[in-house]
Structure formats: C-alpha cells, structure tokens
Amino acid sequence: MASIIPSIPSKTRLSQLAQLSAKIFNNVYNPTGERTGNKILRKRLIGSTITGWYPHRIITLRKITDTFPGMKLVNQEEKLRLEEIAKRKKRGKGAPKKGQGKRASLGTKKQK
C-alpha cells in the first residue's frame, strides 16, 4: 500500500503565492517584514476634520480695540487677571522678577 504524502511547496512557490495574494487583496508585498509605515499611510487624513470641529473666531475684542482706539473699550477678563496679579504681589505671592527665581539663586550659592 502506498501512503499518500502531501507535497510541500517550495520557498519560491510560497513567495509567489504571497506576492499574488498581496496583489489581489491590495496589500503591500513585504517579504523581509520591514516596517514601512503603510498602516499609517493608508489611514484617512483627519486634520481637516479636527480643524472643522472648532468654530472660527470671526472677531475678537482685541481686534476691535486695536482698530478703534478712541472707543476705550475694556476687556473685563484681562482687567480681572491684572487685579488678581496685583493682589498676589501685594501679599508677596507674585511671580519673581527675571533672574530672581529659585534657579538663579542656586547658581550664586555654588560660586562661593
């Protein structure tokens, strides 16, 4: 009785099959398995979707005050921010002057 042994395809035949399969299924034939970045390049671009999500600023208070300085408009948010900074400085909690912070004082101690 002769036993039935399935024939094993050669390496060249397998590579031809992989190449044909890639062509049929619109994939990239990459026999070495190197990273090509095709997965990312195939994805749909999303930049326009993200920028389209946020509404466009048509006009701002700063543009109006720059265009018409005679109107003397006041930005309430900016005014409150400056008042808060003044209160903090009065209590000694404000930001240090340039060159007066922690890092600047560390450098002077090392030079002794």
Automatic annotation (TrEMBL):
PANTHER family, sorted: MITOCHONDRIAL RIBOSOMAL PROTEIN S33, SMALL RIBOSOMAL SUBUNIT PROTEIN MS33
Region listing for Disordered, in residue ranges: 85-112
Keyword Ribosomal protein: yes
Higher taxonomy: Eukaryota, Fungi, Fungi incertae sedis, Mucoromycota, Glomeromycotina
Designated name of the protein: Small ribosomal subunit protein mS33
Top-level taxon of the source organism: Eukaryota
Family of the protein in this entry: Belongs to the mitochondrion-specific ribosomal protein mS33 family.
Any one GO cellular component localisation term in the record: ribonucleoprotein complex
Localization terms from the record: Mitochondrion
Alphabetical list of Pfam families matching this protein: MRP-S33
Classification via InterPro entries: Ribosomal_mS33
Keyword Repressor found: no
Key words, A-Z: Mitochondrion, Ribonucleoprotein, Ribosomal protein
Species of provenance: Rhizophagus irregularis (strain DAOM 197198w)
Comp. bias intervals (Basic residues): 87-101
